[in-house]
Amino acid sequence: MIDIKNIAKTFGDRQVLKGIDGCFEPGQTSLIIGGSGTGKSVLLKCMIGLVKPDAGEVIYDGRDFLSGDKDLQKEIRREMGVLFQGSALFDSKTVLDNVRFPLDMLTDQSEEEKLDRAQECLKRVGLENAGDRMPSEISGGMKKRVGIARAIVLNPKYLFCDEPNSGLDPLTSIKIDQLIKEITDEYKVTTVIITHDMNSMMEIGEKIMFLYEGNKLWEGNSDTLTHSNVDELNEFINANKLIREMER
Amino acid sequence: MLTRIGDYFIFLGTLFRNREKMGVYLRLIIDECMSIGVGSIFIVALVNTFIGAVTCVQTAYNLTNPFVPKNIIALIVRDSSILELAPTLSCIVLAGKVGSNIAGELGTMRISEQIDALEVMGINSSSYLILPKVVASVLMFPLLVIMAAFLSILGGYIAGTLAGVISPEEYVSGLRFEYKPFGVTFALIKTVVFAFLVSTISAYQGYNVKGGALEVGTASTSAVTNSCIAIVAADFVLTQVLLT
Ligand SMILES: Nc1ncnc2c1ncn2[C@@H]1O[C@H](COP(=O)(O)OP(=O)(O)OP(=O)(O)O)[C@@H](O)[C@H]1O
Ligand SMILES: [Mg+2]
Asked: First vs last Cα of chain A: how many Å apart?
């Protein structure tokens, strides 16, 4: 379980996060939704320690991440898998080496074990045949899937995905969502997903947090999403619906 | 400006803190040596051969006094090649080639979140990415400079004899005249310092990029200009300290 308390962050004179609380349960896919530029990625980066918040706490199963010492931080980080908004694959390494990388750096497994595990993860995301291609040679959707494979290769306890399905066709989006859901259920992972995708919200929104201008305005799940009396949220959902109808 | 220099020294500190296992670095260093060293042979060789040739012909042109023996030309080519042209000029060329490459690569990794990806794995990204480049530069620059000095003197020989300003015998006797071995040591000391400056300054510029592709370009440019300024400044200081 991850608990966040009163996370606040200001860049220059712009307050991006204004004190966000929340908790994320294991075995559940928790979604953070909100318009572009509302601070979703910044919140995620605060949680994983890439951005230092001005105030607040992030607690991983009772362990205080931000004020903990370097060794504790390292330990917690090794239990995390992160899929970045732009996949963040290492472009000097092949797909397979990208997936293997955490194993190479952080474990003492034998070559064979590492190769097996990396292949297994690639297979999981349906890319067992793309192992020796370079990231520049594969499509955006494939990159996201490789990013997921790399994020899960060490069996993380905490999985963070920043827009796993933005810019993908609806079918691939659904597949990626299902994949994340399966992994979450199977290994009781605490999964946090940032998304603006209405399908994802309805399908895998076991817990949904709505951010608006740096505040958490609403929290619920896919069943209660459409019955809220928060105007900003309804507007956000309607805009999403409109776009979906236009797509049809 | 002063805070930038302060930041640079703090940045240098992070390179050596919580490093990864030594075995990890070995392969990376070898890879970097290949790209930095082998990749730069051609341009360094070309520039220095021609610089040696030009130095020889120009010196001959300026030495109109018939009482000065011709072999002085070779001596001048030798000393200026070893002491100044090969180390300083090669490192300026390398600042353009290796420096912009380091800054561009790290800058791209920064804006595409690859550095963040390393950090969340609990890897010290600055030492993992930068230390191999610094070590490889400090190892390879001196080798390139030795080759550069040799080719510069050879270039002088070829140009001088082809242009007929000096005979092969005069050139060789000039090369042997009053040779001071410390010149080579001095050149290598300079080169090691330059290599460290070029690689760390370029890495600093690239690693701290904020923004997008435009800023990566700016970082590459400032990596080269700042490296060149650092090289000439260090050149002046080292010459004062070691040669006087
Ligand atoms: N390192 C930074 N320095 C300054 N401002 C930043 C930084 N990172 C983010 N911001 C600002 O914080 C705000 C929120 O950014 P964030 O990336 O969290 O948006 P987002 O909700 O993830 O949007 P999107 O859905 O488009 O990804 C933006 O206005 C952005 O300009
Ligand atoms: Mg974002």
From this structure: 39
